[in-house]
Design a protein that fits this description.
globular; 12 strands; 16% helix; alpha+beta; 3-stranded antiparallel β-sheet; single chain; 7-stranded antiparallel β-sheet
Length: 196
């Protein structure tokens, strides 16, 4: 037997809770940005994926109008940092509802390192950083999708495999699940795509 829900007849905890508990694990874009007056901001977003490869564009959805969205709209720049299992707790700490004038890097004890192209800093402790410029911001009702064109990528060599790409087993990125659950990096296997 199945229980059927609709937007008009959502579960008791709401559609948001159903979506996030069902569509999991979700990778985390740990976004660093600057406000118009230069205040650093840092926050994790799990509504995150690749939108295009040529040009390289990342997609992050902000549920509600948060400081990151305001900063991206004001400056047109941000950095998607990829964290690790060892950074899980501090990543979660940056999801707190700090006031816009609070520097989250300083508040949680992280290092704001200069980026190579954009003005927004990257997280020095995170092994991968995608520097982005705003491609578009699409209003989606109570959410907004931020599309960022990648202009620079920096990767710590300690997470690279012999082929020059990040090694999942070395990177060990955490993920978001439903409720208050975070996920550790799962087991992997090689499974080449069929040729036909």
């Amino acid at each position: 037997m199945r229980i059927v829900h609709s937007p008009e007849n959502p579960p008791s905890k709401g559609i948001y809770a159903l979506l996030t508990a069902s569509i999991a694990p979700r990778p985390i874009a740990w976004i660093s940005s600057l406000s118009a007056d230069g205040t650093p901001n840092l926050a994790p977003y799990s509504f995150f994926t690749i939108a295009c490869t040529d040009p390289a564009i990342l997609s992050i959805t902000s549920v509600g109008h948060k400081d990151t969205l305001s900063n991206v709209e004001a400056t047109g720049e941000f950095v998607v940092n990829i964290g690790t299992e060892s950074l899980m707790e501090v990543m979660n700490a940056t999801s707190a509802p700090f006031e816009p004038e609070v520097d989250e890097f300083a508040k949680v004890g992280l290092t704001a390192a200069p980026s190579d192209v954009v003005s927004a800093p990257r997280v020095a402790e995170a092994p991968i950083a995608f520097e982005c410029v705003r491609h578009d911001v699409i209003d989606l009702g109570t959410s907004a999708m931020m599309l960022g064109r990648v202009v620079s990528v920096s990767v710590e060599d300690e997470v690279l495999a012999e082929d020059g790409l990040p090694d999942f087993g070395s990177l060990l990125p955490p993920s978001r699940l439903g409720r208050h659950e975070w996920g550790y990096a799962p087991r992997t296997r090689e499974l080449p795509r069929p040729l036909k």
